[in-house]
Amino acid sequence: MSSKKDRSSILVALPAVFVLTLCSVLPLCWMCWTVAANPQVRAELSFSAFRFELLGRTLLYNGTVAIIATAMGLPAGYVLGRGRGMVARLLWVLLPAALLLPSLSYAYGWAQFVRMYRHLVLPWGITFRPNGAADILRCIWSLAAWLWAVPAGLIGLALRRMDTNVQQQAVLDGALHWVTFRQLLGPIIASLAIVTILATQEFAVYEPTGISVVATEVRMVFDTGAMSSPDNLITQSGALGGGFASSDQPERAAAAVATAAPLLAVTILLAIAAAWGAGQTSGSETVATGDWPPVLDVSKVTVAITIALLLLNIGVPVLSLIRSLYVPLSPLTMWREFGPKVQGAILVAVEASAFALVAGFSLAGRWIRGSLALAGASFLIGGQLLAIALIRIWNRPGLYWGYDSSIVPLIAYAGRFGWLALAAGRATWTRPWREMRDVASADGASAFQTAFWVIWPLAWPTLLAGGLVVGALSMTEVPATVLLMPEHPQVLTPTLMTWVHMVRYDAMIEASLIMMATVIVPALLAVILTGIGLRALKAAMVGSPTAQTASQRA
Amino acid sequence: MMRGLKISLILLTLCLAIIPAGCNHGPEPEEIIVYCGVDEPYASKVFAEFEKQSGIHVAVQYDIESSKSVGLAGKLEAESAHPRADVWWGSEAFLSTRLASENILEPYSPTTGADIPPEFKDPQGYWTGIGLRARVLAVSNPPPPFQITGIEDLADPRLKNKICISRPTAGATGAHVAALYVFWGRDKTIAFFHKLHDNGIAALGGNAEVADQVGNGVYSLGLTDSDDVSNSAANGGKLSMVVPDQSTFGTLAMPTTIGLVRGTRHEQAAKKLIDFLASKPVEQMLIDMKYARWSVRGGAGQEIKAMKIDYREAAKVYAQAQRETTAILDGRM
Prior knowledge:
The structure holds two protein chains of two kinds.
Chain A: H1 2-37, H2 49-82, H3 85-94, H4 103-117, H5 133-147, H6 149-160, H7 164-173, H8 176-200, H9 214-224, H10 249-279, H11 300-324, H12 331-365, H13 371-380, H14 382-394, H15 400-403, H16 407-427, H17 431-442, H18 447-475, H19 479-484, H20 493-499, H21 506-541, H22 545-553
Helix pairs in contact in A: 1-12, 1-13, 1-14, 1-16, 2-3, 2-5, 2-6, 2-8, 2-11, 4-5, 4-11, 4-21, 6-8, 7-8, 8-10, 9-10, 10-14, 11-21, 12-16, 12-18, 12-21, 13-16, 14-16, 16-18, 17-18, 18-21, 18-22
Chain B: H1 2-22, E1 31-36, H2 40-54, E2 57-62, H3 70-78, E3 87-90, H4 94-101, E4 105-106, E5 128-140, E6 163-166, H5 171-183, H6 186-198, E7 202-204, H7 207-215, E8 221-225, H8 226-234, E9 239-242, E10 253-261, H9 267-277, H10 280-288, H11 311-329
Parallel strand pairs in B: 1-2, 1-3, 6-7, 6-8
Antiparallel strand pairs in B: 3-10, 4-10, 5-8, 5-9, 5-10
Helix pairs in contact in B: 4-11, 5-6, 5-11, 6-11, 7-8
């Protein structure tokens, strides 16, 4: 019986194994193999002054992004964690809005703001000269304002899951701020690490004005082979670049991986810091919203600051885009022009979403140890390296059916964001769910029966929300999409990238606005579903008839 | 157990069903794919006109400004065993020459290109050139305190930290440095780029960025493409254009180049498009839109003095010139 049960749960896990192998394991293995198989690119791994500067610059810029984003995320996190009523609820919906916009559209919005008002700062000698201090600060600010929802969400969740008894005692002792800061230290460290990682993966914000960071170098090495070190064989005159034959794609791909290697090492350290920090968010696995005393409520000043930040971080770039339009704003005309590519983006996003969703459901049936770490690893390597790996894996005669289709982009998106769907699946293995599984198991249900009759009927909104988030992020993903340039169907992001260097361009603005409008739908649905999922879980925990029926059926 | 098996199979089938759903079963018969180095705002209007006239849908892949044409050429090379693209429309001639030498292009002489002079066509018919652009100097308003005549003015110490260029990874700049490698020789070109680096030249993300920054008064002088200067001026940039070295060796004049991709799955439709692109009205369209400045049919020599460059020689040193000059601008060589 026991072995039968085990076999049944293994079969439930098969789809997740399939998705993980395709989207995470294969690209990661390719990365290791390609550096091993191309010894000439190991010159890229040597730590020259150039490389040291490049890595230092990348970490300095993106570390600053993390500090600014976390500083902005603190008040918003407080409102999320200790706010009541409509403002707090609305914030859960509005806060991720910036994050769901394509990074290059969002940065373009800020670039338009700078273009419109740069004359105001000219008297102080601030010129926004490309690659100059003001220009770099513009990029840093754009990324920080784009990513501020991450620390806000982490801090908000941490506050909601905090032991309020400690805080109430701190209020009596007059040490609330100090105690809360100590309790939030872990989430703050996690925020800093996560935002730094996310920012280092973005090249589209830095590249148009020629700012060199690791992400821009990786793309250049892969696309042109031109930015590698002079001592790399690929770049040496008289070698591959010297004759008619250009440096070929396998070697450029290997050089790109090697170029990113030092940053990947730092990313691993940051990921460990993030995991440690996130682990400090709560003493329990129970999500206990709404049970803090009024004395711990967020202050009105913090709410006001948060609303101001929301208007600044979402309102200013979006309004700047609209104000920069020379042609009348016409959704119908915009759809007529960009509709096919937006539809293409939706199609691929739906496929990626479904792919991740299947994995999420599967893992809710049977958890595989290490699966989240694997999916997380394929996220941590960044969209560019994932895309390069997939191009090299699929660009071969036998697999051309996949290369010239939406298969490769959907694998890239599932590999990049699939961990979110898996995390939704993982949530069904936390304490309240485990208790339900235990009850079902005591009633003699197999692992599969438990999943089918108890877990899936209750967890489907959360699992579906995870899949929808994957879809929403896929629609606006930049680093992998720009390298993959999907042809069947075509999507909008690579076209945006060809326009982003233009100081002001109506088509770029219109296309950005239409993408923003489109992505709101799955994002809103995900938020609503998460709410339904949480309510279902609460109902199950207090022994609602639904849960009891489910348990009886199991 | 059986139910578990069934559900697993359903989940697996769902997974696998997504794959054929996303699979490309080949483009529609009346669709051709173009890899296009010509800027989208101009090229898209040309393709729209072709679609209107022929009823054939054109799916276009454009390149990013900072790796203009080079990235797409690399993609063509990587996909040569099973090409996705049917037609190549490059922003200059050297990459097309390289692609021809690598057997990635197929010879085809467009029926509409008989009046194009031989210097703007590949001798074997691998590519055909239309619509000349030129490498020019974008001059700010107010201009520098001395008369600008040639590219060597960029190294003038009076312009220290006030000059800019696109990174040579962008197609036209890469072509220009390759042309200088052939015309001046490697040593002189490298010495020139060292001078530029010492004079504080800014290496920007693309030629359009160079024109825009000069037009905004951030820099006094920039080396860029004629169409980017026109475009920046049309968008309110305060700049003028100097065609450099007209009393000495001339400037680099670049036709856009059209080629048929070897192994195309839509040969007839692709040839139709090439015939259309090589036609006189399309070239005029490019000139009217201010992408091209001169017609290849009029002969570049009539209006500007162009460098006499052997495309094949320049194509040979293209990658080397691009990498070395980029390394110099980055301070790595």
